[in-house]
Amino acid sequence: MEFLISWEKALLTKKYDVNPKEQKMRLDLVRYLINVYKSSKFIWDYENEKIDFLSVIGIPNIEENWIGRDVLLKEVLVRACNYDAVESTLFRGITTSKFNIYETFYDYILHDYEIYQIPKLIFNEKKEVYEEYSQPEYLISDKELRLKAELEAICSSVPLEEREQYCRSKAKVSRYNFIH
């Protein structure tokens, strides 16, 4: 735990030779792990030398290989650290836990990307666990509802190749940084 706290301080004060976005991602992960390790529900399996994440984060342990670690890391980054993941450039899918998908991914939805909205994980300080949180429908902002209706109208009446003129950003659709 002390190592994570010192790493957090280093990430806040030092300039690394990495991209600032990568440094922020590392900081988000360290803060996430600090919450996991400070939880009384945290379980270290001494016999197998593994961490039982299920009791703290609700995500089952994944096979101990590179693919399994990548899946777990992506799940943590999307659900608990507020990042987004492009699932496939072929099928144009983005997984997110953000609540304002129409504002955030307006240009992507305009270009027929599917947005997969999954529950966010929020750390409950009292229970010392990450809990799923989905936004109730009555809390969806009026702006989100208007953007949804606007996108549905454009996508149903304008061919895909002519939708570029309706983009809100001057940059190309691929300008967002995602986890691949």
Structure, described:
42% of the residues lie in helices and 16% in strands. It is of the alpha+beta class and 180 residues long. The chain has a three-stranded mixed β-sheet with strand order 3-4-5. A two-stranded antiparallel ribbon has the order 1-2. The chain has a two-stranded antiparallel ribbon with strand order 6-7.
Main sheet specs: 3 strands, mixed
Main sheet: strand order: 3-4-5
Overall geometric form: elongated
N-end to C-end Cα span: 29 Å
List keywords for this structure.
alpha+beta; 3-stranded mixed beta sheet; single chain; disordered C terminus; 180 residues; two-stranded antiparallel ribbon
In short:
The chain is of the alpha+beta class. Helices cover 42% and strands 16% of the residues.
Secondary structure blueprint with pairings:
Elements: H1 2-13, H2 20-38, E1 43-45, E2 50-52, H3 54-57, H4 66-80, E3 85-88, E4 93-96, H5 101-104, H6 106-110, E5 114-117, E6 120-124, E7 129-133, H7 142-157
Parallel strand pairs: 4-5
Antiparallel strand pairs: 1-2, 3-4, 6-7
Helix pairs in contact: 1-2
